[in-house]
Amino acid sequence: MLEAAPARTADLANRIKAHARVLGFSACGITTPEPPPHLSHFEKWLADGMHAGMHYLASAQARARRANTLLIPPRSQSIIMLATNYYQGEPPTPQPAAPHAKVARYAWNDDYHHTLLDRMHALHAFIEAACGEPVAQRMYADTGPLLERELAQRAGLGWIGKNTMLIQPRAGSWTLLSEILLAWPLPADQPFVADRCGSCTRCIDACPTQAILPDERRIDSRRCISYLTIEERGAITAELRPALQDWVFGCDICQDVCPWNERFAQATNDAAFLARDPLPEPGLEALLLSSAAQFSETYKRSPLKRAKRSGLARNAAVALGAQRAQAAQPALVFALQHDDDAGVRAHAAWALGQLGSAASQLALQAALASEQAEVVRGEIAAALQHCAAAAHTPTV
Ligand code: SF4
Ligand code: SF4
Question: Deepest of 12, 42, 173, 239, by most Cβ within 10 A of its Cβ?
Fold first, then answer.
């Protein structure tokens, strides 16, 4: 590749940014492939086990590449950071009556990874045409071994808030990040150095599981509803289940309360991110009782499929228990007796314990007589104990 003259690269950078907007990206900045300055912060997060079951984050290759972006082929000379606004404003249809399921905003339409990759390929084609020669690249839509938010901050897009989201001063944090590592030199933008959270602690105060560590800009995934409802494949910690409320896929609370979102979030008219009408927010009982075939058909293009049918049915059981949805007792009993997945049966048992009705206790006792899986038997026993303790707790 010929060395590009500075004037040419500066002009190219401006044209890339303008074209990124044409393609639907809401912001574009450029940074260098230098090592991220706060790598040790991330390493401490890993060492403290806060990545929970996301072991891929701690693999030797991921850690090496995160520390040295030049290990990712091609050896990039610049990184184009892209933000995409997905804020939809209010949902298109009113929330159904409780009990209902809540889904994080970014999952209100089809899987965004394909959309962002398609747009990045279009941007790359524009770059190659402008350069007049092939330009090697690597693209990621939140899947790469990179400290994406830190790179976006270094590319001048915004600052990392106490909720660990990238916040843009005139757009808030309802944005998806993606990036193109480019084997072509481009002038880097100035980093965004201000921290505009100030003394605000709204996100920390609102988090129902105390997952945001005050003063550390870290989230303990082991307590975060987003992790628990999407990535966790085993049991959800019993202590945290009531706090999940009605969330079955992700959680938006620490963004919903952020004053920068309240003030600056702009509703998008990008069809790829508008909410489906109706929203993919199923009734909790329907989700709990869905078959594998129904689940595959309903969510085949949706981000919800990442949690898998067993994960979403488990989450639905937890939400029904957290909301003490007495009307869902037959559905929970059916799941306890018939679901093929031991995890779903175990969480249905917990939910019946939260309902605590005489019928729930009878169903739990009957299930204990026939259930073989130790994990489910343990949950049934704990649920019956919970019912017994609740019966002896005086009401005020
Ligand atoms: S996504 Fe929800 S659970 Fe996770 S840190 Fe934010 S408010 Fe807390
Ligand atoms: S809620 Fe307040 S502290 Fe949290 S990210 Fe927003 S501005 Fe920062």
Answer: 173
